[in-house]
Design a protein that fits this description.
This protein is mostly loops and about 55 residues long. Helix content is about 5%, strand content about 0%. The chain is elongated.
Length: about 55
């Protein structure tokens, strides 16, 4: 299935951009192989809490 595309008025490539939104609706606009790094931070529901035990 072809990817959806947004019509952008800008001519500069998008780099170092934060995309905030529902992942299922936003991922369709990101081409395959475009993302080099995804950074996220817990806590998530059901994940153990680390109490400064190094």
């Amino acid at each position: 299935m072809p990817r959806k595309q947004r019509v952008l008025k800008e001519t500069q490539p998008k780099i170092n951009q934060i995309i905030a939104g529902d992942c299922l609706s936003e991922l369709v606009y990101i081409p395959d192989g475009f993302v080099d790094l995804v950074l996220f931070s817990p806590p998530y529901d059901g994940v153990p809490t680390y109490r400064k035990v190094w």
